[in-house]
Task: structure prediction
Amino acid sequence: MPHAHPRASEMMFVGKGVVIVGFIDTKSQVFQKTLKQGDVFIVPRGLLHYNLNSGFELATVYSVLSSQNPGMLSISDAMFAPVLSEPMRDLMKNLFSRSKLGTNQIKNVTSFRC
Result:
């Protein structure tokens, strides 16, 4: 589920597997990257972000926050109901089409949060 940390940046290191990570900046531009073992991704403080295991096996991701009290803001399903901005529509279309492509082969797609 997309979420944000209002008082911290987040760094994610992929120890195993393949993970799709991304964030949406203050101008509604989506930054998304597919990470493999050994890759690192940094999410700036306060930005809405998400992560998704897109591989065919379990993924291990180590996440570090820049604050002992980062806060956590979850986005409710109401944010994704009928009236979506164009970047959000594109993001949702990409995620849903990606999941439909491999539904026969992928047995465990796990979203994780801090």
About this structure: Confidence is low (pLDDT under 50) at residues 103-112.
